[in-house]
Write a structure and sequence with these properties.
Blueprint lengths: L4 E3 L8 E2 L18 H10 L5 E3 L5 E3 L1 H13 L2 E4 L7 H8 L7 E4 L14 E2 L5 E2 L4 E2 L4 E2 L4 E2 L4 E2 L4 E2 L4 E2 L4 E2 L4 E2 L4 E2 L12 E2 L4 E2 L4 E2 L4 E2 L4 E2 L4 E2 L5 E3 L4 E4 L7 E2 L3 E9 L3 H5 L3 E10 L6 H9 L10
Amino acid sequence: MSGPREQSGASRLDADRGDPSRADASRPDAEARPTGEALLDALEAGHLRVAEPRPDGMWVVHGWIRQEILKLFRSSPVVPLGGGAAPSASVRGAAGDDPGRHAFLDKAAFPPRRFALADDVRLVPGGSAVRRGAYLGRGVVCMPPMYVNVGAWVGDGTLVDSHALIGSCAQVGAGVHVSAGAQVGGVLEPPAARPVIVEDGAFVGGNCGLYEGVRVGAGAVLAAGVVLAATTPLYDLVHECERTGTSAEPLVVPPGAVVVPGTRPAGGEWARARGLQAACALVVKYRDAGTDARTALEGALRPPAGTAGGA
């Protein structure tokens, strides 16, 4: 594809990559930073988060929080954790009667969270878990089975659908739809690396995969099956440019972009001779404030009436 290349992360660099000399002044200094259980409490209450947006649209990453989480992992022993009703006699067998065997074994510091009615979170029964140290905003709905890992932030009114993952330290904004089977990848190391970020009002389609610090802009729509990592090429058909990222400054999906899976010719004579294709992603349009995600997707994926292939 011809057209200019754009380093997608370069225009909005993260302001703090974990360097204390560049830390946000609103955050606690090194002497006052919480650790251990106090840190996990602060994360769950939303008083701290691994990464947060700034008024200028940039994101600041607090690498010290991930360092403290990693310390907890290293120092915490593996212990039995309760997890539901005991198996029935018909399926227990000899192993089920053994007091030395347990349904779940995990790090003592990170048991599944428990919620009160006052939290205004709907966690539907059926195999879901929210790990200690994860924040869920008011009105969040979790459909089973799904999993939210330590350090993650899920904003108000977001839906996490069945078989979806919100990985460690991933940041998901308010009013986001994380569809069934979507994977919002997590990262703990290196501590200063940007986590995956999905900004307010975005739509993440079924079986999407977001990894390696990808940032999805506010209101963007990802069609089912879109997979994006730090260096995945994103071809913007509207602005006729290729948006790229690096491991240090991962790919940024522009706000309001409607993204569908695509392919491009694989490089090399051998691949070209066989017509081989490599996966990529395509920005096919941009939604406006009055267009909901479903309408934007339908308009992007359905050919106009009267054209070849139209309905």
